[in-house]
Amino acid sequence: MKPPMNLLARTLFLVITISSTIVDAGSPDVLEKRSISAAVYDDLFFYYKYASSAYLITCAKPNGNTLVSRFDSSFSDTQGFIARDDRKKEIVVSFRGSNSPEDFLIDGLVGLTPFNMTNIPIPPGVMVNEGFYTAWKSVAAEVISNVRKQLSTNPGYSVVTTGHALGGALSSLAGITLKEVLTNTLVRMYTYGQPRTGNKAYADWVDRTFASTNLFR
After folding, report:
1. What range does the record give for the signal peptide (predicted)?
2. Which of 19, 52, 71, 79 gets the most CB atoms within 10 Å of its CB?
3. Which residues have a Cβ under 8 Å from the Cβ of 133 and sit 6 or more positions away?
């Protein structure tokens, strides 16, 4: 199913803008602008379709691929879906951005809190946005379980997380979590309009954990 065209246009503008300027989420400094290859641009365009599809009420074939499951927290209204691309051999987790009163309440929780996830070694001093953390925790167990099920029946597949705005922050938290729990699986992350998700210790941890070819924001 095609994503909404108004969102499509806005997000494409963000893709072009963000991909031209790389920003450290934990630092106010903006690094030197640099061009990107056609292949990277194509990937950014491809995965933003997943990100925008998360806003749809129903999408039977996200980006033309298999819809595995949807998740929807009654507590936080955090929503998204898991899809499987058998051509690319990857599992895609897409998070919806702010689209409901509950989402905007989550956005308003701007304080920092320690990032604690079971069985994940977290570096000292890592703090994340309280609202984004609350939203991710409300669906984390379900997402991790369903991704693991897909990987068990599709060995060798990689994992991609993606999302726009609030969904971008959730993609970041999900991406680092999945990277740590799925130690033998390639995990990549594509975020669009991602707000600052944590402190510098968090941003540094994410940058260290993901190679430059596996993290795009």
Report:
1. 1-25
2. 52
3. 113, 115, 173
